[in-house]
Design goal:
13 helices, LLM_FMN-dep_put, monooxygenase, Luciferase-like_dom, oxidoreductase
């Protein structure tokens, strides 16, 4: 099972000081957070994609390429790649290039995003969001697997005898997760291709997340990729920790109350009771995260949102120390207990390459 962090790259004032970081400071902080993730033993760093203030990660592959050069083991991913408004040809080429630079330590998460105005900025119609996601991903899937593509669709110009370059590393396409909070069509799409399904697992109650994952698992089996239990599932999560739970609540409350995504809404207590948000001690984080398996089953990837709502970099790095030293080692051990032997690990470049060759992944092979 993989553990890591994901970021949305928001530039938000610190409600305790009133200071807003510059874009440069926020970008550099995201890099520092990625490097810290590897240092403390996490497996994955994922960045979002946004093209509007107050967010900065408009070019995920630029950031991930820079992080790749400064890390050795970390899997580099996205928490959203906008399949609706990006050109599938550009996605195919950008992430294949990143694959080569990072020696295969790359996967990505497709999503439609949650910012309506982005569609017309890129010449698209938000009312076609699902159809864009379906058509664009079908083309992307082919571009990575066929050396020469002839294609015609509704939303972009046709392709005749087209070859995207560079070709995927070792002929193996990056593994794709499809991220969705509420759209069953995206769970269906992930199942159809045998790809992973990622639920951000932050805002919604457990019963909603459970229904989405069960739909994906059932359809994954329907399309003949394996049993429902063998489907590839990822979950998000959101935590804030201190050694003492009362200290965590007291310190995090002003950030929660003013956060752009949920500030001025339900109380911190109500939100933690009704959603996966955990604010407390490392032990409380462990207990609540382990409970995700009760409604998600045995799954492959757990990512945490740690840097948002104006939290200063120093605080985020302290959170990562707690996550890496006190939380993740226990989660690895506990999630491994009673895990059925036929439940697969999270796909990596090495495992996908070995699967294509019909051999087990070699120790020390490319991640």
């Amino acid at each position: 099972m993989q553990f890591g962090i994901f970021t949305v790259g928001d530039v938000t004032p610190d409600p305790t000081t009133g200071r807003t970081p510059t874009e440069r400071e926020r970008i550099k902080a995201m890099v520092a957070i990625a490097l810290k993730a590897e240092e403390v033993g996490l497996d994955v760093f994922a960045t979002g994609e946004h093209h509007n203030p107050p967010f900065v990660p408009s070019s995920p592959t630029t950031m991930l390429g820079y992080v790749a050069a400064r890390t050795e083991r970390l899997v580099l991913s996205t928490s959203t790649t906008l399949i609706t408004t990006n050109d599938p040809v550009k996605i195919a080429e950008d992430f294949a290039m990143l694959q080569h630079l990072a020696d295969g330590r790359v996967d990505l998460m497709m999503g439609r995003g949650n910012t309506g105005p982005v569609y017309p900025w890129f010449g698209k119609d938000i009312r076609e969001g699902i159809n864009l996601a379906v058509e664009n991903y079908n083309l992307l899937h082919r571009l990575w697997r066929e050396d020469v593509v002839n294609w015609e669709g509704k939303f972009r110009t046709p392709l005749q005898g087209f070859t995207s370059t560079p070709r995927p590393l070792d002929g193996v396409a990056p593994f794709v997760w499809h991220g969705s909070i509420r759209s069953p069509e995206i769970a269906e799409q992930a199942a159809y291709y045998g790809d992973g399904f990622f639920h951000n697992n932050i805002f919604w109650p457990a019963d909603h997340t459970k229904r989405m994952i069960e739909l994906y698992r059932a359809r994954y089996a329907h399309y003949g990729h394996g049993t429902p239990e063998q489907a590839i599932v990822g979950l998000g999560g959101q935590v804030f920790m201190r050694k003492n739970s009362q200290d965590a609540v007291r310190e995090f409350r002003p950030y929660f109350d003013e956060a752009p995504v949920y500030g001025h809404g339900p109380s911190l207590e109500d939100f933690t009771a009704q959603t996966p948000l955990t604010v407390g001690s490392p032990q409380q984080v462990i207990e609540k995260t382990l409970a995700f398996r009760d409604y998600a089953g045995d799954y492959q990837r757990q990512l945490f949102l740690m840097d948002h709502a104006g939290l200063p970099l120093k605080t985020v790095l302290e959170q990562l120390d707690l996550l890496g030293e006190e939380v993740v080692p226990v989660l690895r051990e506990e999630f491994a207990k009673n895990r059925p032997a036929d439940v697969p690990d999270a796909p990596t470049h090495a495992s996908l390459l070995a699967s294509r060759k019909g051999a087990p992944a070699e120790e020390g092979a490319r991640a």
